[in-house]
Write a structure and sequence with these properties.
Oligomer: single chain
Strand content: 5-15%
Distance between the termini: 38 Å
Number of strands: 3
């Protein structure tokens, strides 16, 4: 079983940094339509948006949530939001039962793609809510989802067909 976990506050902070940087860049270039940055006041909104994005990604990875058990044989959930993991509160946790042929070297890129997807989802929905263009963030979000699909489908050995076509 592979576990991917992300601290909710860190993802929101990363999204805040990215939105602040884009706002600063637009100010420096003299743009009139400055995208708002995610402020401390917007934390609850960002957290709700993050929950929606995390659930969407969980739906995409749900095929790997079957048969999860802890060391004592108790059933585990494949996805949890705002839970404690390894003495860290406020985490998003994905538990994946990967096939033996899964390429373990892809765990780090998979984790980065999930984190990037979560951050860009928050940014795109926040821009939508505030009436600004979210196209750039939506493209990045879709790109991260494509990476997640790609990483989950890669194997160390090719899957051999056990039947003949003709």
């Amino acid at each position: 079983m592979q576990v991917l976990y992300f601290e909710i506050q860190k993802i929101i902070d990363n999204a805040r940094v990215m939105s602040d940087y884009r706002s600063k860049t637009e100010i420096d270039h003299g743009e009139q339509t400055i995208i708002p940055s995610i402020n401390i006041v917007d934390g609850p909104v960002a957290k709700k948006l993050l929950e929606d994005g995390a659930a969407g990604i969980a739906g995409m990875m749900s095929g790997y949530f079957h048969g999860l058990k802890d060391g004592d044989g108790n059933a585990l959930e494949g996805y949890e939001y705002d839970t404690a993991y390894e003495d860290t509160d406020g985490c998003i946790v994905y538990r994946l039962d990967m096939p033996l042929s899964f390429d373990q070297r892809l765990l780090v890129p998979l984790k980065r793609a999930v984190r990037g997807g979560l951050e860009n989802y928050v940014l795109s929905r926040f821009a939508d809510l505030t009436g600004f263009s979210s196209e750039q963030y939506e493209q990045h979000y879709r790109s991260e989802l494509d990476k997640i699909r790609s990483y989950l489908s890669r194997r160390t050995t090719t899957i051999k067909r056990t039947y003949k076509l003709f």
